[in-house]
Amino acid sequence: MKKIIVIIINIFFCKIAGAASLSSVNSKVIGQMQDISFNFISTAVTPKVFIAGNDLILDFYETDYTSASKSLEFLQGYIHRVTLVSVNGRTRVVIRGGGHYKYRLELKGNSAIVHLSDQVGQSIMTKYQVGMIDSGNKPGSNNDYSINIKEIKFSRDDNGGGVVEVSYTGDTKLDLTKERIGQSLVINLNAVNYNDSLIKRMDVTDFDSPIKYINIKGANGKLKIDVTNRNSWDYALYQLENKLVVNIRNLDKSTSVSSIPTLKSGGSDRVSFNFQNIDVRALLQLLADFSGYNILVSDSVTGTISIKLNNVPWDQALQTILSAKGLDMRRDGNIIRIAPAAELATLSKQQQDSQKSFEAVEPLDTLTIRLKYAQAATVQSMILRPATAGGGATASVNNPNQAPGSAAPTASLSGSSQPNQILSSRGSILTDTRTNTLIVNDTPSRLKDVKDLIDKIDIPVKQVLIEARIVEATSSFERVLGTRLLLAGVVGNTTISNTLENGVTINQQGINVISAGSANGGTTGGATTGATTAGGTTGGATSFVNQNIGTSSGASLAAVFAPNSNTLIGLEVDALEQQNQGRTISSPKVMTANYQPANIQQGVQIPYQQASSAGNTNVAFVNATLSLQVTPQITDDGYILLNINIQKNTPSPTLQVQGTPAINTNSVTTQVRVKDGSTILVGGIYIDDQQKIIEQVPYLGDIPYLGWLFKAQQTTNSKRELLIFITPRVIANSLENDS
Question: Given this model, what pLDDT does residue 287 score?
Answer without folding.
Answer: 83
